[in-house]
C-alpha cells in the first residue's frame, strides 16, 4: 500500500459530491414506487429510520478502515524497529525497548511533537528517529486505501471470509440483474411508446403488441433488447476496464439533470390547474403491507459501504469527515423524500422504474418537451451502460477470489481464468432477467437479502473484530480519532436486531 501522491488527493467538497453521487443511483429510480405502496406517512418514517441505520454502519466501516491502517502501521513499525535495534548494536545484547524510549534524542521538543502528530507513511517511518517511533500516538489514520476485501482478510477467519465474498457476489449479481432489466425495459418502452396503454402492467406485456401491425409482443421486444444489451456490453467482462474520471463526471451530470427535471415536472403537475372532470390524486397515508417492499428498496438506495475506502481515503482533510457524511445523509434523505413525495402526489400510478412515467407521448407536439421525455426515458440506458462493465468485472474478480487461490491465479487453465468466470458473471443475470422484467422485485430482493449483508452484517462483524484486534495488538491507550460515535457493543446489537427484523418481515411477505 504505497502512500498517495498529492495529485491523487482531492478537497473535502469533492469527496462530499462523490459520496452523494455513489449513493443516489439506481435505487432512487425504484424508490417512488416502493414509497407509494407503503403510504406517504409510513414511507417517510421508514426512509428516515433506514437512512439513520445506514449512517451508523458507515461509521463502523470508517472505524474499521482506521483500525486496518493501524494494524498495517503497527506491523510496519515493528519491522523497522527490529532492523534498527539489530543495526544499533550487532555485537552486543540488544537493549530493551524501555531503555530506548528513555534515550535522549538530538531533536528539539517541537520537532518531536511534529513527528508524533504527522500521518504515518512508509517514507515517514524510514526517516523517524527511534525514540519517536516508540512513543508513537498516531497509529490510526486513513492514509492507506485498504479495501473491504482486504479488511475481511485481515480481521476475518476462513469461513467468515468465504461468507463475505459470497454475500458480495450475490449483491453484485443482483446489481447486474437490475441494470440489465432496467436498460432493456427502458429501451422497450421507448420503442413501443406509441402503442401502449397508460394503465397497462407487466402482466399485459406477454399479449400486448409492441407495434399495432407488428407480430412482436412487448415481452418479445424486452427480451430482444435484453439479449442485445448483454451481447454488446458483456464482452468487456473478459478484459480490464476502469471507469475514467471524465466518464464519472459525465454520469454525474446526466444523473443530476435527469433527477432535477423529474422533480420539476412532478411539481409542475401538482401546481397545474385541475380539470373538473379529473379526479384528484389521493395517495394512501400508510399501508403496513408495503413496508417489506420499501425496506429492500431503501437498503439498496442507501448503499455505499463497499466503495467507502476508494472514496474517503483520497480526501485531503479528513478532520471533517464525520460532518461530511452526516450532511450527505441528511441531504440524500431530503432528496429521496422530495423525489418520492412529488411523485406519488403527481402520478396516480407510479411505475417500478420511475423514469417510465415519463415515456414519450404520441400526443406530444412540442419539440423541446418531446426531447426531454426521450432523455428521461433513456436516462437509465446512458448511466447504467457505463456502470455495467465495471460491476461485471468486479463480480468476475470476486468469483475468482471466492473459488481460486489468488496467489496462484496464473497457474490455472486459460479457459478457467479468462473465459469461465466472465461467463459465470454475465450469464446468470441474463437468465434471471429473461424470465422476469420486474425491477421492483429485483431491487427488493437484492436490497433486503444481499444488501443487509453488505450494509449491516459485514460492518458489524468487521468493527467488532477490528476493535478486539487493535485492543490486543496496540492497546487501549492510543485513541482512534475515526472511531464511530456509536461505541460499545450496544449499537452493533441494535443494528443486528434491526437486520433480523427486516429479514423476517421481507421473508414473511414473500412467503404469503
- CATH class reads Mainly Alpha
Largest sheet: none
Label the overall shape.
globular
The mean pLDDT is: 82
Write down how many β-strands occur, each being a DSSP E stretch of 2 or more residues.
Answer: 0
Rg, Cα atoms, Å? 26 Å
Low-confidence stretches: 96-109, 130-135
Q: By helix and strand content, what is the structural category?
A: mainly alpha
Topology:
Layout: H1 12-23, H2 26-38, H3 40-88, H4 97-102, H5 109-117, H6 122-126, H7 130-134, H8 148-155, H9 158-191, H10 218-233, H11 245-271, H12 291-301, H13 308-312, H14 321-346, H15 367-403, H16 414-435, H17 439-473, H18 490-511
Helix pairs in contact: 1-14, 2-3, 2-12, 2-14, 3-12, 3-14, 3-17, 9-10, 9-15, 9-16, 9-17, 10-16, 11-14, 11-15, 12-17, 12-18, 15-16, 17-18
Could you explain the architecture of this structure?
There is one protein chain. The protein has helices at residues 12-23, 26-38, 40-88, 97-102, 109-117, 122-126, 130-134, 148-155, 158-191, 218-233, 245-271, 291-301, 308-312, 321-346, 367-403, 414-435, 439-473, 490-511. With 512 residues, the protein is mainly α. The chain has one domain (12-78, 140-510): Amino acid/polyamine transporter I, CATH 1.20.1740. The longest helix is centred in the first third of the chain and has 49 residues, at 40-88. The protein is globular and about 85 Å long. Mean pLDDT is 82; it is low at 96-109 and 130-135.
Amino acid at each position: 500500500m504505497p502512500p498517495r501522491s498529492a495529485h491523487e488527493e482531492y478537497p473535502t467538497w469533492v469527496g462530499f459530491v462523490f459520496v452523494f453521487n455513489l449513493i443516489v443511483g439506481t435505487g432512487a429510480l425504484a424508490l417512488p414506487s416502493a414509497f407509494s405502496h407503503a403510504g406517504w406517512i409510513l414511507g417517510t418514517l421508514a426512509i428516515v429510520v433506514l437512512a439513520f441505520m445506514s449512517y451508523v454502519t458507515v461509521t463502523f466501516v470508517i472505524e474499521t478502515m482506521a483500525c486496518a491502517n493501524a494494524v498495517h502501521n503497527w506491523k510496519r513499525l515493528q519491522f523497522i524497529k527490529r532492523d534498527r535495534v539489530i543495526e544499533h548494536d550487532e555485537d552486543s545484547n540488544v537493549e530493551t525497548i524501555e531503555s530506548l524510549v528513555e534515550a535522549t534524542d538530538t531533536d528539539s521538543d517541537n520537532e518531536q511533537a511534529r513527528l508524533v502528530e504527522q500521518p504515518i507513511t512508509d517514507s515517514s517511518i524510514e526517516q523517524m528517529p527511534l525514540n519517536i517511533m516508540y512513543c508513537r500516538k498516531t497509529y490510526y489514520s486513513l492514509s492507506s486505501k485498504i479495501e473491504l476485501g482486504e479488511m475481511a482478510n485481515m480481521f476475518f477467519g476462513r469461513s467468515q471470509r468465504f461468507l463475505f465474498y459470497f454475500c458480495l457476489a450475490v449483491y453484485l449479481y443482483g446489481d447486474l440483474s437490475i441494470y440489465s432489466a432496467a436498460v432493456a425495459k427502458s429501451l422497450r418502452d421507448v420503442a413501443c411508446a406509441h402503442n401502449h396503454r397508460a394503465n397497462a402492467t407487466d402482466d399485459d406485456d406477454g399479449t400486448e403488441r409492441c407495434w399495432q401491425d407488428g407480430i412482436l409482443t412487448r415481452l418479445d421486444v424486452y427480451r430482444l433488447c435484453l439479449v442485445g444489451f448483454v451481447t454488446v456490453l458483456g464482452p468487456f467482462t473478459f478484459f480490464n476496464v476502469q471507469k475514467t474520471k471524465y466518464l464519472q463526471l459525465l454520469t454525474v451530470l446526466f444523473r443530476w439533470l435527469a433527477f432535477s427535471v423529474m422533480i420539476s415536472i412532478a411539481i409542475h403537475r401538482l401546481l397545474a390547474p385541475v380539470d373538473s372532470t379529473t379526479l384528484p390524486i389521493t395517495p394512501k397515508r400508510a399501508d403496513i403491507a408495503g413496508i417489506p417492499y420499501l425496506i429492500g428498496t431503501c437498503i439498496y438506495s442507501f448503499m455505499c459501504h463497499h466503495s467507502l475506502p476508494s472514496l474517503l481515503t483520497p480526501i485531503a482533510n479528513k478532520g471533517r469527515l464525520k460532518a461530511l457524511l452526516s450532511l450527505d445523509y441528511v441531504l440524500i434523505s431530503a432528496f429521496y423524500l422530495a423525489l418520492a413525495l412529488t411523485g406519488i402526489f403527481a402520478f396516480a400510478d407510479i411505475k417500478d422504474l420511475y423514469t417510465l412515467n415519463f415515456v414519450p407521448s404520441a400526443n406530444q407536439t412540442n419539440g423541446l418537451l418531446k426531447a426531454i421525455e426521450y432523455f428521461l426515458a433513456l436516462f437509465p440506458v446512458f448511466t447504467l451502460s457505463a456502470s455495467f462493465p465495471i460491476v461485471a468485472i468486479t463480480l468476475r474478480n470476486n468469483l475468482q477470489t471466492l473459488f481460486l487461490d489468488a496467489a496462484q491465479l496464473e497457474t490455472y487453465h486459460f479457459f478457467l481464468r479468462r473465459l469461465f468466470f466472465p461467463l459465470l458473471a454475465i450469464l446468470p443475470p441474463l437468465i434471471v432477467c429473461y424470465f422476469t422484467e420486474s425491477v421492483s422485485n429485483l431491487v427488493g430482493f437484492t436490497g433486503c437479502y444481499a444488501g443487509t449483508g453488505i450494509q449491516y452484517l459485514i460492518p458489524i462483524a468487521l468493527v467488532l473484530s477490528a476493535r478486539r484486534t487493535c485492543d490486543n495488538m496496540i492497546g487501549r491507550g492510543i485513541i482512534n480519532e475515526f472511531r464511530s460515535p456509536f461505541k460499545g457493543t450496544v449499537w452493533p446489537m441494535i443494528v443486528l436486531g434491526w437486520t433480523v427484523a427486516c429479514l423476517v418481515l421481507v421473508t414473511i411477505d414473500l412467503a404469503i
